[in-house]
């Protein structure tokens, strides 16, 4: 989960407010101050934060809310809406279509993650059945072609470049021509970036653009610059017709929120975010599901997409069936733990569910999390079938807990911790009750509906 720290602080502030006996002006102010602090720490521009605070206060008029109104929900909804407004970057100028040739040119400063992102973008589409190809028109940075070649080879994506030719325009032109002849539907041109926004860089971008006539220019930027992203995005926008933006390194930087909101403020549409060095650490950026996850409210559309992507086809119906029933037994937890350990990526699936992965498998602490999961499984090995299949929370009485602790040789408090984890996950799972199971081919339609 990206920006976990910011999301955690905001959800905690809302939670604390909900715990107050009466939600009055004071409780609301405290909550909003906490959120303000968290956003400023993430380097979001002061004016944006101030506006958000004012708007929420305008919308949530505590005096007008009749008794019985769920104030917490209303406030949470107002915060959700305002965050969406703050981060909403609008739509890209062009969206490539599968089966129709599109040329997409990538621009950005050196080190922003441009070359890596080109391959991620190609790989993302390839997995969805596209025929992408990569052209390396970066003749400025030594090693750029090798890097692209290596990544492309790993992902089995055709590529074009040259060690000898020093004219980026010529390479770009030749590469695009070749892949058009080969009927590739997504031709991605990686251009060179320099250290600074300088005239030579912008001139080269213009020339490559003129030669290749891209349908879409994607500007790649590093999130660690925080709100300085505003000026950078503006400068690139003024030099080439940037149609979409990808923000990288959202995994490692507390300032990611600042970068996202700053880019949104320039009305440059962010379409993807990079969340790690690996090829598949790349996410579609869609503002509502993103904010939903940020606030720990889950992202059901992302969840359905991920199930399709990472759960083997033959296991998808079973998993969905169990989810739709909403019943979560200890045996289901055991089996999902087995999946987590065996398949790794299923962790990505559960990160889309509220409460699942961020606490159970925090990013960067995978080893510890795996040890914890194995420990829980050892305890469950000492349970009877009745206990594993029960849906009665009262069944696990003191004497059963003591017996399990003895059986697995662990202290009683460890068994209690495991049962608490079970209760927490069961609560999350129960939210999926009533999930309509899609027939073949209906998955994406369903995910759209769920998010509406
Ligand atoms: P370029 O000079 O803009 O082409 O940048 P590169 O693609 O060579 O990337 C520069 C560095 O950033 C490399 O070490 C990449 O692995 C790394 N990088 C790129 N995207 C991400 C990301 O989303 N997260 C993290 N953590 N690292 C990234």
UniProtKB/TrEMBL annotation:
Keyword annotations of the record: Cytoplasm, Endoplasmic reticulum, GTP-binding, Hydrolase, Nucleotide-binding, Ribonucleoprotein, RNA-binding, Signal recognition particle
GO cellular component, one term: signal recognition particle, endoplasmic reticulum targeting
Record's subcellular location: Cytoplasm; Endoplasmic reticulum
Main location: cytoplasm
Record-linked PANTHER family: SIGNAL RECOGNITION PARTICLE 54K PROTEIN SRP54 (PTHR11564), SIGNAL RECOGNITION PARTICLE SUBUNIT SRP54 (PTHR11564:SF5)
Subunit description: Component of a signal recognition particle (SRP) complex that consists of a 7SL RNA molecule of 300 nucleotides and six protein subunits: SRP72, SRP68, SRP54, SRP19, SRP14 and SRP9.
Protein name: Signal recognition particle 54 kDa protein
Protein source organism: Linum trigynum
């Amino acid at each position: 989960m990206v920006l976990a720290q910011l999301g955690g602080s905001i959800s905690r502030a809302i939670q604390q407010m909900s715990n107050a006996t009466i939600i009055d002006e004071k409780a609301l102010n405290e909550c909003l101050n906490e959120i303000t602090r968290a956003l400023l720490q993430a380097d979001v521009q002061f004016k944006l934060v101030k506006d958000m605070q004012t708007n929420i206060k305008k919308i949530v008029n505590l005096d007008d809310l009749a008794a019985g109104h769920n104030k917490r929900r209303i406030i949470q909804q107002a915060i959700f809406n305002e965050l969406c407004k703050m981060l909403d970057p609008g739509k890209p100028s062009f969206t490539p279509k599968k089966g129709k040739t599109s040329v997409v040119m990538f621009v950005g400063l050196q080190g922003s993650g441009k070359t890596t992102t080109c391959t991620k973008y190609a790989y993302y589409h390839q997995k969805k059945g596209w025929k992408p190809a990569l052209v390396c028109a970066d003749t400025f940075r030594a090693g750029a072609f090798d890097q692209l070649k290596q990544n492309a080879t790993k992902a089995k994506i055709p590529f074009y470049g040259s060690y000898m030719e020093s004219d980026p325009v010529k390479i770009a032109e030749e590469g695009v021509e070749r892949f058009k002849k080969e009927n590739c539907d997504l031709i991605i041109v990686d251009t060179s970036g320099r250290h600074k926004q300088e005239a030579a860089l912008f001139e080269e971008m213009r020339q490559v653009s003129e030669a290749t006539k891209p349908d879409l220019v994607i500007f790649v930027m590093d999130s660690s610059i925080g709100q300085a992203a505003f000026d950078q995005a503006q400068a690139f926008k003024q030099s080439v017709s940037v149609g979409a933006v990808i923000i990288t390194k959202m995994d490692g930087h507390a300032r990611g929120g600042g970068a996202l909101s700053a880019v949104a403020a320039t009305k440059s549409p962010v379409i993807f975010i990079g969340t790690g060095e690996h090829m598949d650490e790349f996410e579609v950026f869609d503002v509502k599901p993103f904010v939903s996850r940020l606030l720990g409210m889950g992202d059901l559309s992302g969840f359905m997409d991920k199930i399709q992507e990472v759960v083997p086809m033959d296991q998808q119906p079973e998993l969905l069936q169990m989810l739709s029933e909403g019943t979560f037994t200890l045996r289901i937890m055991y089996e999902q733990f087995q999946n987590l350990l065996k398949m790794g990526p299923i962790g990505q699936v559960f990160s889309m569910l509220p409460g699942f992965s961020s606490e159970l498998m925090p990013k960067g602490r995978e080893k510890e999390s795996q040890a914890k999961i194995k420990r829980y499984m050892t305890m469950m090995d000492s349970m009877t079938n009745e206990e594993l299949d029960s849906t009665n929370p009262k069944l696990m009485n003191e004497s059963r807990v003591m017996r399990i602790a003895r059986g697995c040789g662990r202290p009683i408090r460890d068994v209690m911790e495991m049962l608490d984890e079970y209760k927490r996950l069961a609560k999350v799972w129960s939210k999926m009750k009533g999930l309509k199971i899609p027939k073949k081919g209906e998955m994406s339609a369903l995910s759209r509906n769920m998010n509406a």
